[in-house]
Amino acid sequence: MPEFSPFEATLWYATAAPAPETSTLEGTAKADVCIVGGGYTGLTTALELARSGVKVVLLEAQEIGFGGSGRNAGHCTPTFTHYSLPELRKMLGEPWAERLIQRQTRANDRVAEMISRYEIDCEWQQNGYVMAAHTPSAMKTIEEKARDYNAVGAKTRVLDKREVEAVTGSPRFHGGWFHSEAGHLNALGYARGLARAVISEGGAIYTHSAVAKVEREGGGWAVKTSEGRVIADKVIFGTGAYTVGGWPGLDKTFKIQRVFVAATEPLREDTRHAVLPQNTTIHDGRGDIFVYKYNAEGRIVASMFPMGRRGRDLAYTKKVMADRLKWLHPQIDQDIRWDYFWFGELDMQYRTVPRLYDLAPGVVALTGLSGRGVPTGSMLGGILSEWALGVPDRDLALRLEPLTAAPFYMNFGPQLTLRYYRVRDWLTAKRDHAALPPHP
């Protein structure tokens, strides 16, 4: 079994509202649909189906939110990673691209609706997101992004240098892209709240119930754990990067990319008035990303990708993050102490969009969220529940495809891409005579 970093090390584990009471599956349970995986994808699918009167049983190998849903940084920005909307249309083709674009760009509507409807205690703040321009030439991409997203109904705008400093508190940016519908939350609190909502709608959740095997039984399927089984008409795997067994080859459909997240001590009130004064989420605009925002206690929660010594040497890594944060915000005159540090895993696809696999008649799996966990996992429940309710394959927002292993180059491709981004960031800054952060 893969080794994951201690779940208890996360800020969210220390601060999230309690999980609903659940038990381990023992004996036989019956369901119309059995869902494997207690993260955002599985939970929102279960919630949609339970609300529709479908008898649902959800099985989770560990505890609710143990995987990426409880380890991510809590950013909720309804956009796509890496590819622009025109590139997605070319890559996915129609009608699939337009359907997926519509679902993803409206994902925060679903998040906000579920939080409000079920009174989920998860520090939800919908104060927007800024992708900054770290060089003057980056403004061209910012302007194109605003045009493309606004054309599909998103509420975004371009910020000039003065405006971006007013929103972020940083004098280092040359402008930015402001997405007003983005938000941030307590990642584990949101997952636990979704679980409570599933139970309130009549769904059954069993934790510490790892799926060992799925076999045909009669006209349906037997989903077997060490202590019991679920007899169901349909089965959905939504285990993402934390897929361990359950269906042969499913864990080969993606490659793991690790990300680390750290949280500071609560910053002084005067510092908080100067740094992120509007409580937005900030992306510093580099391909070698640094993304950060506040939690409810006034801690900066920041994330980066491991690279070389960064991520392996804890003291060095914390220094890199503190130096980057203080360079972006020279008004921080206190030492930065990082109270929490943890890792999460991303199920990376070369297309960086989810893949929906047709495993057998009545059995599907979905992997490849590629780091867009909160909004993407939240909207995928709608697609998977539609499949379970019998919506024709041709009308779904994701194309059903045969199980396919990730290409070999994904073993090293993401890391090479990050290194390329780092060099590109440096060269672009030099060309534009823009300031460079420490450890560029």
Can you give keywords for this protein?
alpha/beta; D-Amino Acid Oxidase, Chain A, domain 2; FAD/NAD(P)-binding domain; 9-stranded mixed beta sheet; 2 domains; 8-stranded mixed beta sheet; FAD/NAD-bd_sf; 440 residues; globular
Work out the helicity level. 25-40%
The CATH top-level class label of the largest domain: Alpha Beta
Which architecture of the largest domain would the CATH scheme give at its second level? 3-Layer(bba) Sandwich
For the record, what is the CATH homologous superfamily label of the largest domain?
Answer: FAD/NAD(P)-binding domain
Oligomer: single chain
Q: Could you tell me the radius of gyration in angstroms?
A: 21 Å
Instruction: Determine the CATH topology of the largest domain.
Output: FAD/NAD(P)-binding domain
Q: Measure the end-to-end span.
A: 36 Å
Task: Give the biggest beta sheet.
Answer: 9 strands, mixed
Query: Which regions are unreliable across 5 or more consecutive residues at pLDDT < 50?
Result: none
How many domains? The number is: 2
DSSP helical segment count: 13
State the secondary-structure class: alpha/beta
Dominant shape = globular
Q: Kindly state the number of beta strands.
A: 19
Hey, roughly how much beta strand do the residues contain?
15-25%
Q: What do the pLDDT scores average to?
A: 95
